[in-house]
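Example record

The entry below shows one chain as it appears in the dataset: sequence first, then structure tokens.
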Amino acid sequence: MSNRLPPTWAKHLKAQPSAKALAPKAAPLRAKPKTNLPRIQSDDMLLRQALELQKVERLSEAEELCHRVLARRPEHALALYMLGTLGLEFDAELAITFFKRAAAREPSNPYYQLSLGEALLKVFDFSLAVRHLRLACQLKPDLIEALCGLGHAYAGFDQAEMALLVYERALKIDPHYPRALIGIANTLMGLGRMDEAATYLNEAIDRRVNIASAYNSLANTRKFSTEPSELAQILREIGNTANSDDEMSLLHLAAGKILNDLGRYDQAMDYFLRGKALKANSFAIGAYRKRVDSIINLFDTKLFAEKAGYGSPSEVPVFVVGMPRSGTTLTERICSSHPDVHGAGELTKLGRMADAIGLKLEPGQPFGVSVRSMTLQQSRTLAEEYLSYLRQYSPKALRVVDKLPHNFEVIGLIALLFPNARIINCRRDAIDNCLSCFFSNLREGHSYSDSLTTLGQTYREYDRLMHHWQVVLPRRIFENRYEDLVSDQEGQSRRLIDHLGLTWDDACLRFFEKTGSVRTISRWQVRQPIYKSSVNRWKSYENHLQPLIESLGDLAAV
């Protein structure tokens, strides 16, 4: 996220162009402005003080000054913009609200459109991000941050070819721009064009641009059968103490991935363990258990009986859920190979809607009150909001797949809003599933995957919640076991398509030939025919997995 301030702001306040990342050590704050100063000057001085406070991370004081300006002038664009930058790391949704107000006040300001677009990228709202970042690029065609953000948004919105064009425009402005080099490489990887992606990644490495990220991506462009020269390079880079913990973690995971490919499992596990230990594991399993308890207590058979007939009768939505690395991407790929099905990828929309209506466990806040009091009309309005969002991805498909794995947490809301929606739960051997999560650099929000013990505990909560859904929503959820798919590809694929209410199409057996972008860690695997080497993969690491096996308990079918 860029905290870049508009030139008018920087010029007026004589500040650095970046309020946070690029700011020098703060100068002493000026005295509080006198009340007899003209209001506009008073506001500017308050905001300058807020900027100085932001530079030294005194964020609550900076926020208070911005609110003082807004108390006098509620639509002061710069004050709104600053509040957005101040709150982005803590509450992205609230930051988006502030950026929207600033952009509405001054729609021709490219920096406001840029910040709004990048905040939307943070919550994975790619369709809306495209709109604002495209406008930023129109307002200022050489704004390279906006071009890179737009490339990211296009790739997330399943318009990878458009993303490539935008990244190429960015590289014409600056051939060595880090975000453009890594962005175009990742987009090419999503399209399966691994050799082209490797060219950009190697260029980034040669120029020492985002070294750790580049090596991590390069390690995932293929499966290695012989030791590549990159392994020695990665190991040398691990010895560079100038790298941050996050960079070191990526480098260790890259080394582990290559060593795993080579069958050097003990060495691989050593790097995986060290890589994950470098991450700040902030996952609170106790709080997560309480959230699962709250979901189970709210969505009982009585609630579903009371809300029968609510929501939309639409059969368009399909939800593929499960733990990450359980086969959700493969399942979506098989389904979306059918001519009447579109795969929209991992959409955060439903989870954000759930949070907005109180399905978020917060201290002192009641859980699910708005769901219990929800009216028929409210349920239909919510359903239509989600359907409208889904239709942006495919206006005409009979089925559109949302494959965000953790939507297993909001199956209750899905059942209320879409009583005819198809739900597919992807299951995999618990140890294999957790080990694959541990080996992966999962995106923000999956910090439970940084510890073998916490992984097992989290998996148990997933299993507990899925058991509840099967009890209160009998026959609604199709259980798709990865091992069944591997051992009987056609039989299980036919059962999947039948669950969607569609006639069989042989294209579903040739899912690996499907064109289009894949935007998950599985982008290499799902372009291959089904293989069995991932079944019982954990046995190669058995000597290292006691913490995981103990935390899984009876779910570890050893």
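Notes for this example: Strands lie at 317-322, 341-343, 399-402, 422-427, 477-481. DSSP finds 27 helices and five strands in the chain.
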